[in-house]
């Protein structure tokens, strides 16, 4: 039995890269009141990018 990398590895790699970008990008110190909302935007962008990658994979295969 051989292990082969299939076409599902491409959206899985896109998912891993996008979520690692969202979680490991350091927050910039904000000088105003409240909290930095950019991590939420990055997480949303990673989620949307991941879902689009898996949708394209599902529609092609």
Automatic annotation (TrEMBL):
It comes from the Bacteria. The chain crosses the membrane at residues 6-27, 39-60. Keywords: Membrane, Transmembrane, Transmembrane helix. This is Transmembrane protein. It comes from Nitratireductor arenosus.
